Amino acid sequence: MQSTFAINLARIAIIVAVLALWEVLSRTGIVNPRLLPSASDTFVTLGDLLQRAAVQKDLMVTATEVLTAFALAVPVGALIGFLVAENRYFADVAKPLLFFAFSIPKSIFLPMFILVFGVGFAQKVGFGFFSTIFIVIMSTTTAVESVKVEHLTVARSYGATPMQTAFRVYLPSMLPVLLEALRISMIFNLTGVILAEMYASRDGIGHQIAIWGENFQMKQLLAGVVMVAAIAMTFNELVRWVETRCSHWRT
Q1: Does residue 233 share a domain with residue 111?
Q2: SS3 9
Q3: Per-residue confidence band for 250, with pLDDT thresholds at 50, 70 and 90
Q4: How far is 132 from 150, CA to CA, in rounded Å?
Q5: Phi, psi for residue 118 in degrees, rounded to 5
Q6: Could you report how far apart the first and last alpha carbons of the chain are, in Å?
Q7: Residue 184 or 166, more confident
Q8: 176 with 226, same domain?
Q9: If you average pLDDT over every residue of the chain, what do you get?
């Protein structure tokens, strides 16, 4: 309990120190305030932006795109990853190709998504899906391979059906690894959607951030960055909480 408190206290201290350094660098002029507005000014601007209907609408657009892409990529990627891990021939054929595809920067394919889907919802969701699915496939493959053969042998020797084996052996063993993968996958997903919005879009918070950057509105730009970072950290902590609730399944 004390160690957890000390860790949380250290995290808060680091955040406070970074914000204080940010404030000092801007206020003292060590860094040009036009390039780096102070932390206090940035958070005041953030509060103002969150009250604007246009920004609220853009946040809802981005949230819808991110959740849609995530809801599509996770089950599809998990199914493919499961099939790859369970079939030795399929694994030998597909694994090198998956590693090759994963190593390629996904941003170079964004113009192709714009050409195929145009500028709109489908383009951003499609690119978010594409940015996410490979990490889901690889994580699921690793999770399936982590299931102990002894557990599968015992389940099958007692006549467990494939459905019972999936829910009573595979899922409990895989869930901790999958939850960790979900956290990483959401980072790729959010990055993909925001990048698609910044590159070519008519709405979304990424589109707004791009406009603020082009117009040299640094307070709004930094406030937008803080906004996106807060969304990512909130999801990360939510999955971390679920992961701790399921930690007893690791054994």
Answers
A1: yes
A2: helix
A3: low
A4: 32
A5: 80, -170
A6: 22
A7: 184
A8: yes
A9: 85
Please report, for the chain, how many H helices and E strands are present, in that order.
11, 0
DSSP state of 52: -
Of the candidates 48, 28, 24, which has an alpha carbon nearest to the alpha carbon of residue 226? 48
User: Measured between alpha carbons, how far is 26 from 14 in angstroms, rounded to an integer?
Assistant: 18
- Residue 61: φ, ψ to 5°: -60, -50
Q: Are residues 126 and 217 in the same domain?
A: yes
Pairwise CA distance, residues 150 & 136, whole Å: 25
Q: Report residue 154 as tokens.
A: 């015992």
Specify the pLDDT at position 24.
94
Contact status, residue 195 vs residue 187, Cβ threshold 8 Å? no
- Type of residue found at 60: M
| Token couple for 236 | 């990360």
Which single residue is written with the structure tokens 């305030």?
Answer: 33
145, HSE (Cβ side, Cα atoms, 13 Å) = 12
Domain that holds residue 15: 1-34
62 and 87 assigned to the same domain? yes
Region 42-66: what's the mean pLDDT?
Answer: 93
pTM (predicted TM-score): 0.83
Distance, in Å, from the CA atom of 65 to the CA atom of 196, rounded to the nearest integer, reads 11
User: How many domains is the chain partitioned into structurally?
Assistant: 2
Q: Which residue has the tokens 């052996």?
A: 169
Q: Which residues contact 185 (CB under 8 A, 6 or more apart)?
A: 70, 73, 74, 77, 132, 135, 136, 139
CA atoms within 13 A on the CB side of 65: 31
Task: Name every residue whose Cβ is closer than 8 Å to that of residue 54 and which is 6 or more positions away in sequence.
Answer: none
